[in-house]
Amino acid sequence: MLKIVEFKRASKKFKEFSKTEWGKANKEHFGDASLWNIKKFKFKALDKHEIVGVLTVQYNMGVLYIDDLIVKESHRRQGVGKSLIKEAEELAKKLNAHKIFLYTGKSWASVKFYATMGYTAETELPNHYGKQTWVIFTKYL
Ligand SMILES: CC(C)(COP(=O)(O)OP(=O)(O)OC[C@H]1O[C@@H](n2cnc3c(N)ncnc32)[C@H](O)[C@@H]1OP(=O)(O)O)[C@@H](O)C(=O)NCCC(=O)NCCS
Question: Ligand 1 mean position to 62 CA, how many Å?
């Protein structure tokens, strides 16, 4: 009989299963199992030695995902976010990405920020995190 078990830490067997089965599925989906390969990058914005902003991104198969961008409250509207996004875009170009994407809350100030940075609201995610509407923003390179 099938039994479903919840667990906290991935065992060697679990990792092996995942690697083998995803290898087969990725071969079916993309024709090459090795193409699906997520690379993570982290940036910090420093004012003297103080961290005033952080950005984390993930790159995979031509797409750069902006995972986390936040600027210290006292340092907003001073170009820190813009500098971090520009850095992400430089990285995307170096990696030959064709697209950058992220999602953010529809009612948040970040919507104006991303629009200013040339990102297009592509899709809405209604009733999402916190029952708020979220927006997927993209920029094609
Ligand atoms: C969104 C965020 C990263 C922007 O960072 P920032 O350093 O304040 O942005 P910048 O100063 O580089 O802004 C560049 C331009 O974007 C636009 N912009 C930025 N914040 C804006 C706001 N609150 N209202 C209207 N336009 C805004 C402006 O055109 C601005 O240029 P200007 O100040 O010369 O008019 C910052 O507000 C933040 O950390 N918010 C909280 C976390 C968050 O929502 N992160 C995004 C989640 S995905």
Answer: 26
- Do residues 63 and 71 make contact, with C-beta atoms less than 8 angstroms apart? no
Specify the DSSP element, H or E, that contains 44: strand 39-47
Q: Please count the CA atoms within 13 angstroms of the CA of 137 that sit on its side-chain side.
A: 18
Report d(CA 28, CA 44) in Å as an integer: 38
Q: CB atoms < 10 A from the CB of 140, how many?
A: 9
Q: Is the CB of 71 under 6 A from ligand 1?
A: yes
Residue 59 and residue 95 in contact, taking contact as beta carbons nearer than 8 Å: yes
Rounded-to-integer distance, Cα 95 and Cα 115, Å:
23
Distances (CA, A) of 56 to 29, 91, 112: 27, 12, 20
What's the confidence (pLDDT) of residue 18?
96
- pLDDT score at 20: 96
CA distance 141 to 138: 10
pTM for this predicted structure: 0.95
Cβ atoms of 68 and 56 closer than 8 Å: yes
- Ligand 1 in contact with 78 (CB < 6 A)? yes
Whether the Cβ atoms of residue 18 and residue 51 lie closer than 8 Å to each other:
no
